[in-house]
Amino acid sequence: MIKITLPDESVKEFEVGATPMDVAINISEGFARNVISAAFNGTTIETATPLTTDGTLVLYTWNDENGKKAFWHSTSHVMAQVLEEMYSGIKLTLGPAISNGFYYDVDFEDHKITDADFKKIEDRVLEISREKHEFKLRPVSKAEALEVYKDNVYKTELISNLEDGTITFCDHATFTDLCRGGHIPNTGIIKAMKVMSVAGAYWRGDEKNKQLTRVYGTSFPKQKDLTEYLELLEEAKRRDHRKLGKELELFAFSQKVGQGLPLWLPKGAALRDRLEQFLKKAQKKAGYEQVITPHIGQKELYVTSGHYAKYGADSFQPITTPAEGEEFLLKPMNCPHHCEIYNTKPWSYKDLPKRYAEFGTVYRYEQSGELHGLTRVRGFTQDDAHIFCTPEQLDEEFKKVIDLVLYVFSSLGFENFTAQISLRDKENRDKYIGSDENWEKAENAIINAAADKGLNTVVEYGEAAFYGPKLDFMVKDALGRQWQLGTIQVDYNLPERFELTYKGSDNELHRPVMIHRAPFGSMERFIAILLEHTAGNFPLWLMPEQAIILSLSEKYENYAKKVLNLLENYEIRALVDNRNETIGKKIRDAEMQKTPFMLIVGEEEEKNGTISIRRHGQEGKGNSSVTIEEFASIVDEEINKTLKVFTV
Ligand SMILES: [Zn+2]
Ligand SMILES: [Zn+2]
Q1: CA dist list (Å): 468 to 333, 413, 416, 493
Q2: From CA 185, how far away is CA 299, in angstroms rounded?
C-alpha cells in the first residue's frame, strides 16, 4: 500500500499502482469527471500514471491554472496532428501551453498557412476530439527516438539534449509526438477550439536560427466559454491603453526620441500631475517628506547596493566623463540615493521613522521586443518612498502604508483585489539575509497588519526576496484581468550595505529597517492599467476635461465663453467647442474624448442663464437644464463620492 496525501492534508491508502484518476474516483465520481490533470510531489503527471510511492497528490480541474495548462497543451497535440495531415512534410518542433491558450512552432517548408485555413483546422481538431482519443505516454530509448525523428532537425536537437531513459512519446489516435507529459485524459473534453493567429518565431528564440511559423490557438470545454473569451478580447482591444492614449492625446512615442521612452502630451502630463498631487497630499498627511535625487548615480553606488552585481550586465551600460573617466549609471532604482540621504546625519530612535518620498524617474534596459506601450518601457517614474524605522515600529508602519494603498485604490475605483503575503521558504532559511529574529518580526508585522486591515490575503511561502518579506496587491480590472499594483517590501539588506544606523535608547548604534513602497508602482504602468480598467472614463476628479461647452451656433459664442469663466471660478476643468460645426458633430467628438459632461448652450440657455447637461455615454437620456451653480454642486457631489479626504 502507498500513502497519498491530498491538499487538505488528509492521507489515504491505495494499492501500489493506483492512478491519480483512481484517487479522484475514490473522492467522488462527480469530482473525477472534472479531473483533467495531476501533480505528484510537485511534478506534473498524467492522470493515468501509476503511483508507486508515498507522496502528495494534487488533482486539477479546468478551474485550476494547471488544469487549463494541460487542456491547452493537449489541444496543441491535436492541432499538430491536423497540421501534419493538411500540410505534408512539415516539421513540428514545440507546442507548449501559454496564458490563454497554446502555440505550436512549425517549419512549414514550402507550404504556407493563411487565415483562410483556420476554419478548416478548427473543424478537423474538433472532429478528432469528438472521437475521444486517450493521450498515452510511452517511454522510448534515445536511439529509437532519434530514429523516429531522423528527418526532423529540430526534434533531433531536442532529443540530443535529453538523457537516455528520460524520453517519452505521447500517442493519441494515429499521432505521436515527443513529449514529457502533462495531458488531459482524452480529447473528448475539447469542445471548442480556435486558431488565433500565426506569427514568425525563430527556432529557440535565436535570430541566427531559421524562422519558423508560430501557430497560436486556444480551446475550451464549452462553446460558450470560447464565445465569452472572444468577446473579452474584443473589449480588451477597444480598451487597449495604446489606442486610448492616442485618441485621448495623453502620450506618444517617437522613434527619434527612442523606443520605450514615453512622451507625455499636455493632457497626459496634466493627468499625471493630478495623480502625483493627489498622492503627495495624502503622503504629507501620513508624515512623508519629499526628496529629489538625480537621474544618474556613480557606478560605485550600485556596487555598494549590490544592484550592479545582480543587474549590471542587463542594464544600460555606464556613462563615462570625458576628462576624469568617472563612471555613472542611469538610475535603475531610487533606494540607494535615499539611503545616502538618510546617511547625511546621525539619527536617534526618537527621530524615527524617517519617510522619504520621491516621484523618481528610473531607467531600465528592456529588449526592444519586450517593449509594450506604457506597461513595458525603458524609462519610468516610480511613486517611490523609503521608510527607515526601528524593528519595533514595523508593525505600525506597515498598517499605515496599507491605509495609504487602500486610499489610492478606493479613490481610483479599484474595488477587487487580494493581498499576496510573500514569506520565506519554510525549509530553506539559510538563503535569506538578516537574523531569524528580525525576519520573524517582519513576517508577523505583515501578517498582523493585513489581518488588522481586513485584507483578503494569500500567503506564498518561498516568494520573499532574499532581503525581506513583502506584501503585493493584486488587482482585478473591469475585464477580470489580474495586475500587480502596489508593493510594500521590508529590507534588511540595504541598511547593512549602506551602514545605516540610529542611536537606540540604550545609547548603542542599531540598524534601522527599511521599507520600500509604491502604491501606484510606476506612473506609466498605473495609468496604462487605469486606462484599460476604466476604458478612459477616469473618475471625475482625474479627468483631463470634466466638461465641454458646446455652442449651438456662433451666435452663442460669447455666452459659451462666459460659462467657461464661471466654471473656472468653481475650479471645474472645461473647454469650449465654438467650431463652426453642427451640434451633432460636436457631441460625437466630445463622446470620443469621453468628456463626462457636455454643456449645450443656445438661445434658451443664454436667456435664462443656464446650461443644458448631457452626460457622456447616455445618449437619449434627455438633457437637463441647470444653472452654473447647480452644475457645480453636481460635479462636487460626484467627486466627493470617490475622492475622500485621507485621514491618518
Ligand atoms: Zn504533450
Ligand atoms: Zn526601493
Answers
A1: 17, 30, 26, 8
A2: 55
Ligand nearest to the CA of 336: 2
Residues with CB under 5 A from ligand 1 (ion): 170, 179
Cα 138 to middle of ligand 1, angstroms = 11
Give dist(CA 72, CA 77) in Å, integer.
9
Cα four-point dihedral sign 336, 337, 340, 345: negative
Radius of gyration (C-alpha) of the chain in whole angstroms: 30
Q: Which ligand is nearest to the CA of 74?
A: 1
The C-alpha cell 502604508 sits at: 401
**Cell 543587474 appears where?**
311
CA of 252 to the centre of ligand 2 (A): 28
In 269-395, which ranges are E strands?
Answer: 289-290, 296-298, 319-320, 327-330, 354-363, 379-389
Tell me the three state secondary structure of residue 197: strand
List pLDDT tens digits, range 78-113. 999 999 999 999 999 999 999 899 999 999 999 999
Q: Which ligand is nearest to the CA of 95?
A: 1
Find the 530 Cα to ligand 2 centroid distance in Å. Answer: 23
Q: How far is the CA of 210 from the centre of ligand 2 (A)?
A: 42
Dihedral of the alpha carbons of 422, 427, 430, 431, in degrees to the nearest 10: -50
> Are 251 and 245 a contacting pair, CB within 8 Å?
yes
Q: What is the pTM of this model?
A: 0.83
